[in-house]
Amino acid sequence: MKITRHTVAAAALILATAAFAADTPKQKPGTEGQGPVFEKIDVRVINLDVVVTDKRGNHIHGLTKDDFQIFENGVAKPVSNFYEVASEPKTATATAATPAAPQEKLSLAQIEQIPDNQKRRIIFYVDNLSLMPFNRNRVFKEMKEFAKAVLRPGDEAMVATFNRSMKIRAAFTRDPIQIQQTLDTLAGESALGVSNKSERRDVQGRINDAQTYDDALAQARQYAQSVEHDLRQSVTSLNALMSTLAGVEGKKIVVLTTEGFQIQPGREMFMLVDEVGRQKGWTAGGTMLEGMFFNASNLIQDVAKTAYANGITLYAIHAGGLGAQNDDIMADSSRSTPYSVAQSAISNSTESLELIAQMTGGVASVNTNNFAGAFATIEKDLDSYYSLGYRAGTERVDRQRNLEVRLKNPKGLTVRSRQSFVEKSTFAEMNDRVIANLLYRTKSNDLKIAVRSSSPVPTDEGLFKVPIEVQIPLNSMTFLPQGDVYAGGFTVYVAVANKDGDMSDVSRKQHQITIPNAEMEKAKGKYYTYQLTLLMEPGLNKISVGVVDDVTSTTGFAKDQVIAQDMR
Q: What pTM was computed for the model?
């Protein structure tokens, strides 16, 4: 699956009309497209998942609503919603004499009835650009066991890789065996970490052999530019993937496996220039100031911001583990890398992982080979946490707000939660959810809308006009008395993806409905039909439609598929 926006018109909303079904009167003449004449009701609750642990990392249970404090931009907010998620502790491995009790199996129908907000979605993101195959595959060993153990009914997992381009290797699935098989396939593939390490050793050699300070500095600068370029590509791809999950409900985590993500690209090379300069007696300074020019902290923070803006917790695993330091010290068999340079290389790629994990409420596994322990921590976080909520203001703007969750009596306990959130406008949120409806399974449809398409009509430009009907039950909408009529309204959002996975921009159209007081009782039980025509490319196209009630912000989503071809 590619995650791109089609630059040509994969879909264009070219015509929109609307009418009541059956004999219900149409909207008041001249009001179509006007803004609503009623006051909007919009009460929002911001939810936070909070993990509380002691000094040994054990999860703490039994806390109450009164134990917590929430601060938004430094201002205390009353906790309005609270519950604890606490799964039963797993027993020791069963023996033949005491077999484990069989896990309750749910039917497909029962799984489909699980609300979306109670499901969990796990994304395994493998940064093949930075990974050494051996290090990657030993993480995979524990990752497969984690996937096997953690997925419960209704949960889904995905595998994505980055190797100068992002690819979905396993789309969201409930089958842990598919995840394991995908990881086995990846384990047999190459990774660019080998060539990256070779490049790093070559640069170190050229710096050591440089005859002048300027020559050595030029090598460090060129290396930093290359690393920064790769990092920017990695961040862009990861952010694009996380952005598509914005409209997906439930608990979402990303497990990032990498050996890269340098917070200061090339830092260790500039330090090596200083070390070599002292040995060779070069009279030059300012090397580290030069290195500070290559600062990717904003890029790294963008990853965290994208994550918490879309309700995602990031868990980072540095696959190099304890061996990474030794690899850098022995980078060249003929001459070892100074210890300070090797340490700088390690901290340069681990500080970033600790930062994004901390900002999103997750955990970073660095400087350790205990990958089983890392996945055990993730599993505990998924099974044991507190959900806190507070009421947001009525203003909905695309603006970041800082969050802090505290315990009134900490007692040496550690609290982990996301440190910020973006209260998205209705427009931004609906855009996200319409795109998510194109890509992922969802049954979010409180308005109970339905979408039906008609036969495509070819155009002279090689595209097709496809008539679409959006049916909205009037009982699902809210109408307010306005003099001699009842007034309501809705906004329709539409997007299309073609057979290659390219997506159109989201089109939006607002519509107002007025019903005379005398006709209001007759309107009950009927539906409102909104008709539009989409312009799309030949072949298979997926259509995603979202409708939001402009009075209550209640939403509905539906989708359909169209094969655009000439049927004449």
A: 0.81
